Amino acid sequence: MDQAAVTLESHELSKTYFSTEPPTEVLRGIDLSVRAGEFLVVMGTSGSGKSTLLYSISGMDRPTSGNVTLEGRELTSLGDTEMSKVRLTRMGFVFQQPHFLGNLEVRDNILLPALRAAPKQGREAAISRVDALMERFGITHIRSHGITQVSGGQLQRASICRALAGEPSVLFADEPTGALNSSMTAEVMDAFTDVHRDGTTIVMVTHDPGVAARGERVIYLRDGTVEAAREIGRWEPDTARRREDDLLAWLRDLGF
Amino acid sequence: MRSIAVENEERLYLRYAYNDLVKNKGINAALVVTLVLSAFLMATGSMVLERLAGSISRLSEQGKPPDFLQMHKGEYDPAALTRFAADHESEIDAWLVEEMLGYDSASLSWSRPDTGENGDLAASRIDNLFVTQNTEFDFLVDRTGTVVEPAAGEVYVPVLYQQRYGLTPGDVLTIRTGSGPYELEVRGEVKDAQMAASLSPSSRFLIHPEDFEALGRAGGATPEIIVEYRLAADGDANALQTAYEGAGGLPTNGQPVTGPQLRIISMISDGLVAFALVFVSLVLIVIALLNLRFVIRGTLEDEVHEIGAMKAIGIPDREISRLYLTKYSILALVGCVVGGLLAIVAANVLTHGIQTSYAPAPVDVWTFLVPLIALAAVYVIVVGICRGVLRGVRRIEVVNALVHGSTLDEKQAARRTRRQARWVRRTGLVSSSGAGINRRLAVLDLRAEGRAWVLLPVVFGLTAVLITLPANMVSTFESPRFVTYMGVPERDLRADVQFQEDVDGVKDRLVTAMEDDDRLTDVRSYASVDYTADSEDGPARLRVEVGNRPDDGGIRFSQGGLPRDGQIALSVLNADRFRVGVGDDLTIHDGDQSITVQVSGIYQDITSGGQTAKMSGDVTEGAAAYTVFADLAGDGADPGGIADEYDEQFPTGGVKPTQEYVRETLGVLIDSMRAAAWVALVFGLGVVVLITSLFLKLRLARDRSNMGVLSAIGFSAKELVGQVRTKTLLVVAAGTAAGLVLAATAGQSLASAALTAVQLGITDLTFIPNPWLVYVLYPLLLLGAGYFGVAVLTAGVRRADKSEWIRR
Ligand SMILES: Nc1ncnc2c1ncn2[C@@H]1O[C@H](COP(=O)(O)OP(=O)(O)OP(=O)(O)O)[C@@H](O)[C@H]1O
Ligand SMILES: [Mg+2]
Fold first, then answer.
1. Mind telling me how many Å the CA of A235 is from chain B's nearest CA?
2. Distance between CA atoms of B188 and B131, rounded to whole angstroms?
3. A160: domain range?
4. Ligand 1 centroid, distance to A14 Cα (angstroms)
5. Residue A54 falls within a domain, yes or no?
6. Interface pTM (ipTM) of the complex?
């Protein structure tokens, strides 16, 4: 693998929860390299540690051991404030459930991280960037809506806008289509593909082989370790069917 | 069959309650602690009051104090007293004239021959009265309630002195008389039903008649008498007082006191702390109830799915409520039991002093019933309110609960969505950026969810009232300006020339000396002249202070103003007694002469039992007593030093700094108010910390997912804590500010109402706060308590795995 192009890397990353008896070892020494601009899909059985991997990489949770580098910078030694700044400026998140602040309208929710990151002079730039993103993902008309007044697909697209508003180098997504029906899923995945095409690095957890087929590389977690990995190349609409079947066969071999 | 079902049900409720108690330990512990504190203070206050009332009664039974008494200094006509007694034979059961020798504290000292220890009694009360034992009633008794008879050369000291100076039998009490020191051996201490109150300005020492004779001959004492009456079974003390004062020719140069007044004074001076405890507990109960309401509502929201499910399978609302109510009943019960047990300990400590000044109260059924009733009331109120809040269960609709997880019905939910949408459109983030966004978010949150936060400001407001009210009382009573509530102008020096052979001469010489002294200015003298006037029960004595009064430095007129010629100003209680208001005419009699004067004003005065009056005029001789006031010329001069000089030169002139006069009169009252203020402060702050913690614990639990979102998008733990802190401190500050305003307005009226009720002579108190304390230190303490609560409750936030906040 071309070292210069690696943007996100984990080494011997482990996470153990000591709150249980016996302690739960959720991640057991995960080595991971994500190239700049890559679309990595993380799959695995339920409880295999996929979400934990995302939270540990992004510093929301403290890994028990091992380390993470982003764009050459060691992250695990950072304090909470610096780590938060990394999340604010270099990472974006999309969750399965759309997590938004109920007291803010859709647009303000999207603006929140961008405004937090922007210096006073940068405010106007942040606002126009967000407006452009909303335009692009077709949610401009719901900008002044409350969170409870819009559909799940719209909310998930709003999540993507929020995640992108800070121009992150990595976009994390944890089962972003898990709560959506199939037409909404397609809608949201088109958005991801679009973002990827712009050159954004994406790390996405999913259970859905059809969604996973959108990625370039799939890794399979079991019991906190990477059991298998598979390069599947860039997604194109006309090869979608075949990629999906191919992936399914691979997954079936892994016991999915 | 049925009974088994009921039993099973009971067990189900208990098991549910138990599970909940274990699951939410922190919250339940905080609830219990507030309930324990409320119950504790309520029980302690009521126990102390019951014990005090019992102690007072017990000592009354032993000492048989008079139902009406009149103090008097100077000459009197014994035949007139006999005539009066004969005229009122049917009302009077017994009467006596007690002769007393009064010494000021400087004349008394004690020593212990064995060790050579000694000291004076300078810190004691104004009047030290030496008496012999009475034969019919008004006895001085020992610890066991026995009427003691000292042998010659022996003295029994008031129990208060014995305590304060640690006097033991065998110590020697030395009296400085006009012809050298006179020594008596301390035999023990006596309790005095008449002068037991810590507010009582005088104390009685018991000696043998031989020593009494000898002391009388030795000189240096002020002879005084108390004319005392025991009433027949259905006698009325007030009617007797009126009759006595209207009779004419009877000794009246001193304070009249009735039996009920004696009791009130005792209850006020020694029960004040207990009253304060009850007041504090009432506030705490309100806080506990608000708190419960908050928690119950939160629980219903959290468990709406379960409630919906129970409803869906047909469990009646009443039983669902009972499921929850069981837990709160248990908490309330635990609170009352633990609070009650703690109260037993506290009440024992607090009544110790009472038991020494008064008599050990007999233990009877009320001893147990009073605190039990108080506790039962707390329990019933708490459970009742919980039951009320739990009615909310009825309003929960199955579909909304199960599908939307909402306690609201269709209409309410729609209304809420509309409100939220409207709100969201009105507010924007756009104006802020960078770290300033944290403050913006905090404010938006508060504005949107103000209702959820309302507990904190209310609790802080109530607590602010709770702690500032007693502090304001203390500072008011302690303030130099408080003399104006004593019918006294704000002057530096005061002299009371009274009860001696040559009152006029002493007064003239004193006034001349003062006028010649450049250190003093504005020397003014007032004469006390006795009149009678018609009260509701017939003619009664009215002592009037007559003098030239161009102004009277800030006497507290509640209506009207200073008297001009032909006018009179009355104290509040006298205006009441003679049933007149400002502008009314009052006819006053001096022997056969009558004059009609118009009431110019009504002022507040707590001296002389609150019964005083003022007229304008020039009386230079023949008055019963004179009061002389003077101001210091320079600012830095020490009134104490000058007063001492004059006291040397005019030993019978009674020259004192005005402030000392206040301290002597009110010192004990101020001390107990200060104790009450401390109690309020300590408990207030404790409760505030507790409630803040409990509130934040619940609030943070509810805010977890929002905090998780913010953390994911890059807000640091420090910022999240900062938002919580901002919100908390904002509501705490708002609540505290509101509380301070409330204390200054409604609190002042409340204090005035309480003072009016006890008939002290104050009806309209204006607080003289200590601004540093009440408007700087206390608010800072409250904010600090809020800050502390935030710090404790958010301590875990930094270390937490933030993903837990957004995982389901
Ligand atoms: N705070 C915690 N304490 C103890 N164990 C935990 C904690 N959080 C997660 N786990 C455990 O860690 C394991 C991995 O959880 P994680 O959410 O990462 O799995 P996942 O692969 O994302 O599963 P899913 O596909 O269901 O989302 C699970 O067994 C879970 O029970
Ligand atoms: Mg997961």
1. 28
2. 15
3. 3-48+61-253
4. 13
5. no
6. 0.93
